[in-house]
């Protein structure tokens, strides 16, 4: 199942992606973390055993019987091993290969095997003057580099894919010259993916960093988990995201596991400013590269500062799950959003009071919202009932409505070259 798609601007990806390799200190930290998890698991197991007094007594009796049986089996095995050792000693197998060789033939195994005594033997094919075409292994590195190349003319898009219980992100490349479509590389996700947003801002860099070297190809991923994962698409074989915005506080959760409190289950502890439910929508704007907007099933919209990895603003004007968010293409502070409350909002995030957001209503739950890139005061909405509505953000009533499908209209896309052409699915 493919749950989300996102185009990547042509030429935005690094031509030859890097291959991820763990540094020695990172490997050591990973081993220590795994060891600590194992210790915590053992500690939890010991705590559970202490609460089962009656079962422990029964287990001890069973262990006594088992140990007695093991002692009997151990004696029998020792007797059998002694008999086998004595038999092998009589065969003298340790001297089986000690055949005498002629001094003349010693060290000339290759020549004798090939049936001659005056053969020239080389350790490497490159040393043989009669071999003009060398092994294919020499060009393997060059072939691998060609396979990983992403040309500036290639069309690249991202697909969020789930099969049974395994979810992953796949980067597809369409070679226009060869007319081939293939998966360039992929990485695993911890939960079902719901939303994607491409961006060229490196979360590890500060606001003042605007040099071209600090840009790249990154992907924000929203899942059923409460955190937003940021992945570097220019690195293959990567094991974890660059950073996670929000989500569970791992240190607090680890501390809670150490404490024994089975009667009173505690609420999960989240990072400051985190969503508390699935992240259903994401939007990034190149004019404010450090800013990312997210909509969640917790009925909130949050703005994130990528340079600090912190939430800077939270908007609560929706009364149900926020299904879609999108920045205005020309006014970078205007945010369009729609949710399961059958409402669409246009909000200027610079305003301190979110009650000033302009509200529009539709017939059913919102599935997607999209600004018209040619006239960015107009926007489209699609709903669960299959209806497409076209609004002018300066007036409350829609300019027109269209029953695009008999069932849910999940997405709408406007043609970049023909203003009056759009498609729906």
Structural features, described:
- By secondary structure, the chain is an alpha+beta fold.
- Helices cover 21% and strands 34% of the residues.
- It is built from five helices and 24 strands.
- The strands form seven sheets. It has a four-stranded antiparallel beta sheet, with no helix packed on it. A four-stranded antiparallel beta sheet has the order 6-7-8-10, with no helix packed on it.
- The chain starts with a strand and ends with a strand.
Please write out the topology:
Blueprint: E1 2-8, E2 18-19, H1 24-50, H2 53-91, H3 109-114, H4 140-148, E3 155-163, E4 166-175, E5 180-189, E6 193-201, E7 215-223, E8 228-232, E9 235-236, E10 243-245, H5 250-258, E11 279-285, E12 288-296, E13 301-305, E14 310-315, E15 322-327, E16 334-339, E17 343-348, E18 358-361, E19 366-371, E20 378-383, E21 387-392, E22 400-403, E23 412-414, E24 422-424
- List how many beta strands DSSP finds: 24
**Number of H/I helices:** 5
Sequence stretches where pLDDT stays below 50 over 5 or more residues: none
The fraction of residues in strands falls at: 25-35%
Q: Which class of secondary structure composition applies to the elements?
A: alpha+beta
Overall pLDDT confidence: 82
Query: From the alpha-carbon coordinates, what is the Rg to the nearest angstrom?
Result: 32 Å
Q: What strand order characterises the main sheet?
A: 1-3-4-5
Largest sheet: 4 strands, antiparallel
* Gap from first CA to last CA: 16 Å
What is the overall silhouette? extended
Sequence of secondary-structure elements? EEHHHHEEEEEEEEHEEEEEEEEEEEEEE
Fraction in helix:
10-25%
